[in-house]
Amino acid sequence: MGLGDHGCKHYRRRCQMVAPCCGEVFWCRHCHNEAKTTNEWDPSKRHELDRTTVRSLVCALCDLRQPVASLCAGCGCEFGAYSCLKCCFFDDDLHKQQFHCEACGICRVGGASNFFHCNTCGCCYANSLQGNHVCVENSMRQNCPVCFEYLFDSVRPTAVLPCGHTIHSECLKDMEKNRQLLCPICMKTYADLAPIWRRIDQEVADTPMPTDYANWVAHILCNDCNQAGHVPFHILGLKCPHCSSYNTRRLAIDRNGPSPAANSPGPV
After folding, report:
1. DSSP single-letter state for residue 210
2. Where does the record place the CHY-type domain (predicted)?
């Protein structure tokens, strides 16, 4: 077996880690978590591995158990072409362009020169988002709103929505396939829905409300611009008077026409 033939389905490396939580030996934290969290039938025994707590490794070449290091104390082999002792992380696949972010406190992939750390969002983002995204405090330190996996240290690609909230890229694609075009957290639209709004405009114009509803006024709150207002009631949609979005919530209905305070925003 060659030097690059050791490891698991997650990483190529020449060492296994001794999990301090259970004393068992695993190739990586994902192998541990799959065994102890996903496959463990006894709920009392389910737990995840914090790799920063690992203090011992087992060399895959000579089986020597030893303190965490980048080289084996017995045979001298490198445990990984990339090694980070702060994260107890080793990997032979350098094409991932691994780097350690001090602000995040973990290793990431994609090349340090291609990312910047946003202190407000608390995570590394692609350079294309620098000065070009809505900051949400600690936006990555939460679960994906679709699959509920913790985003901050997830190995799956993550997307940043225009509203600043984050979600797994594949979860976002699943939402798009199912025509779910609102952020699951704040309900703002994340796609350009102007063509849909124009179609609703035409449908509203082609469908006048019966006389009994002619004077009804709906008080609304827009999910997209967060402004309140009042608009003529229509069963097909209530259009925001500020941003023209139909992504609105009906707060109340005035069946007697505009009130004396009709020129002021509705209740929130």
Report:
1. P
2. 1-77
- For the chain, the domains span 3-96, 99-177, 194-254
pLDDT tens digit string along 118-172? 999 999 999 999 999 999 999 999 999 999 999 998 888 999 999 999 999 999 9
Token representation of residue 156: 């799956």
Q: What is the Cα–Cα distance from 28 to 152, expressed in whole angstroms?
A: 18
Determine how many CB atoms are found less than 10 A away from the CB of residue 98.
Answer: 22
Q: What is the DSSP letter of 56?
A: E
CATH topology of domain 194-254: Rubrerythrin, domain 2 (2.20.28)
Average pLDDT value for residue range 107-122: 94
Residue with tokens 């004077």: 215
Tell me the C-alpha distance between 260 and 138, whole Å. 44
C-alpha 259: how far from its chain's center? Answer: 44
Coil, helix or strand at residue 135:
coil
CA gap 26, 88 in Å, rounded:
13
Under DSSP, the state recorded for 38 is I
Q: Which helix (H) or strand (E) holds 117?
A: strand 115-118
Q: Which two tokens stand for residue 30?
A: 């994902």
User: Which two structure tokens, joined as six digits, stand for 12?
Assistant: 């190529």
Residue type at 190 in one-letter notation? Y
Of residues 69, 152, 142, the one with CA closest to residue 105: 152
User: What's the whole-model pTM score?
Assistant: 0.78
What are phi and psi for residue 216, nearest 5 degrees?
Answer: -70, 140
Amino acid letter for position 261: A
For residue 93, the one-letter residue type is: D
Residue 97 exposure: Cα atoms within 13 Å on the Cβ side: 6
